[in-house]
Amino acid sequence: MLFGGFLVKAIIFYIVGGFILYIVIETAVRRGINHSIIGQFLEKKYGMKEDKKSFLDDDLDNENKEDY
């Protein structure tokens, strides 16, 4: 039974780690494209600005930024 508990912990660890890695990569790619010269050029040329809300936009760090 010792190895069964270890296996469950390892699976949970990999799932949580993969989710965190996904969030980091997705955020970096989105911000990198939006702030790049090509991204700004395409935004000016085609007028596409995607304000796709993420669940990370609702966290407490982003709340009340206009108040300061």
TrEMBL record:
Q: Which domain of life is it from?
A: Bacteria
Tell me yes or no: is Transmembrane among this UniProt entry's keywords. Answer: yes
For this UniProt record, give its keywords in alphabetical order, as a comma-separated list.
Membrane, Transmembrane, Transmembrane helix
Ranges that cross the membrane: 6-25
Protein name listed in UniProt:
Uncharacterized protein
Q: Which organism is it from?
A: Peribacillus simplex
